[in-house]
Design a protein that fits this description.
The chain is α/β, with parallel strands linked by helices and 228 residues long. It is built from 8 helices and 13 strands. The protein has helices at 11-23, 34-41, 60-69, 85-93, 106-117, 153-165, 172-180, 190-204, and strands spanning 2-7, 26-31, 48-52, 54-55, 58-59, 76-80, 98-101, 127-130, 133-136, 141-144, 147-150, 209-214, 218-223. A 5-stranded parallel β-sheet has the order 2-1-3-6-7, with helices on both faces. A 4-stranded antiparallel β-sheet has the order 8-9-10-11, with helices on one face. Strand 10 (141-144) and strand 11 form a beta hairpin. Helix 1 (11-23) packs across helix 5, helix 2 packs parallel to helix 3 and helix 6 (153-165) packs across helix 8.
Length: 228
């Protein structure tokens, strides 16, 4: 399932948007402030970003400008009650990929988000290589040479984040958010079970990549036998 980050402080609208996206097999993590969105964007790679301009801590356009200035190329759809030409131009010139004025038809929002997710951007590759592994997100599979194994959705999202961070240790909270989404209740041992299954599957296909516990720092994906 694809995952986007929705930055919207209106709780009822956010629930309706999530429901519409879920019907199209698009998962959404929801935050209501720009500072929370900035943190979330650095916890995991999202396929797209949907940002309301009217947020409690400022204009969502400022978040988009910060995202683009940092080099993140995640596709972005701006939501706003402002429909003047200069507002649309301002948003597009700040790095937005699309623009949708409120009120909008849910079918149109879902279609626009789907179009963004289909874009072949660098931050969201269909296939990703790391060491002897090749991750095929669309097929929910990971390969090592000619061997392959299917991953559950949470396992794939966790492995994608570990690969994305390139040997950098990640806290449990970041991996839980990757696997099950921000704000979702996760049972205490859910991450341990997912990591156990991932480790077994990597061994089963003959990979030298290991998910290791870095004391005091979290978990990282590293090659067996390589000194730090």
């Amino acid at each position: 399932m694809n995952r986007i980050l929705l930055v919207e402080d209106h709780e009822r609208l956010a629930r309706l948007v999530c429901k519409g996206l879920d019907a199209a097999s698009i998962a959404a993590d929801v935050v209501g402030r720009m500072d929370a969105a900035w943190t979330a964007l650095h916890q995991m790679p999202y396929g797209a970003l949907v940002v309301d301009r009217g947020l409690p801590d400022g204009d969502g356009l400022a978040l988009l400008q910060r995202v683009r200035a940092s080099g993140l190329g995640v596709p972005c759809l701006l939501l706003t009650a402002r429909d003047a030409l200069h507002d649309r131009v301002e948003g597009l010139e700040s790095g937005a990929d699309d623009y949708l004025a409120k009120p909008f038809a849910m079918e149109e929002l879902v279609a626009r988000v789907g179009a963004l997710l289909r874009r072949p951007v660098e931050c969201r590759p269909v296939e990703l290589s790391h060491g002897d592994l090749q991750l095929k997100a669309n097929a929910s599979a990971v390969c090592c040479g000619s061997a392959s194994v299917t991953l559950a959705p949470a396992e794939m999202q966790i492995l994608l984040l570990l690969v994305h961070k390139n040997r950098e240790p990640l806290r449990r909270t970041a991996l839980e958010a990757a696997g099950w989404g921000l704000g979702h209740a996760v049972t205490p041992n859910a991450l341990d079970v997912a990591l156990h299954r991932l480790r077994r599957k990597l061994l089963a296909i003959g990979s030298r990549q290991r998910i290791v516990n870095v004391k005091g720092l979290g978990y990282a994906l590293r090659e067996a036998g390589v000194a730090e």
